[in-house]
Amino acid sequence: xxxxxxxxxxxxxxxxxxxxxxxxxxxxxxxxxxxxxxxxxxxxxxxxxxxxxxxxxxxxxxxxxx
Length: 66
Known about the structure:
Layout: H1 15-26, H2 40-54, H3 58-65
């Protein structure tokens, strides 16, 4: 049997599981504005929160500049 340092080897977690664990353990929410599970009002809320905290997305700025 080969020895691996802690955190190496084994199986990788599903990205949604990583996000779920981050929310449960750290209170961090990672959500895409394009997530199909969200209704339009919820996507709009995520977009507005993102813009408020971090400014407009790069592709939104380019579209606005034409």
